[in-house]
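Example 3.2
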Amino acid sequence: MAGEKIILGIDPGTTIMGFGLIKVVNKKMQFLQLNELDLKKYDDHYLKLKLIFERTIELIDTHHPDEIAIEAPFFGKNVQSMLKLGRAQGVAMAAGLSREVPITEYAPKKIKMAITGNGNASKEQVAKMLQGMLALKSLPKNLDSMDGLAAAVCHFYNEGRVEIGKSYTGWSAFVKQNEKRVKK
């Protein structure tokens, strides 16, 4: 149908991957689903990456999102944590790219700003705002799924803006926009 699309939002992580889905009908958001992939019980980092890839593929094949919004890694002091988070994000992006779903990255501050008007808002503030916006009856115990939902809502609010983050429509677009990262 014209004027209708599904946005999958992903908060990548190697402990918990959160995700949320919204449907946009005639420029109005409707909540579809939120959940998380709990990876705490696995010790093998490569197994976690495999599970993130498989779960993202499963979400794409089940819900057929038109677009994916993903939270970009934030810069922290722990290099090992950043590396693991970047790998988790990359695997989720690869899953989307393998199904040719356009992907847009958003910085955590940009997502918080879109939802609350404050780029330094807490997870709890973001979750409460989303609860009100989407008329959710309750909040999940872990807020990682709300972070994934926040990425989807941020994407909805930023649609049509000239500068919305890095977008990739496939492997060739990714390589073209990241030529400095490609070994020659």
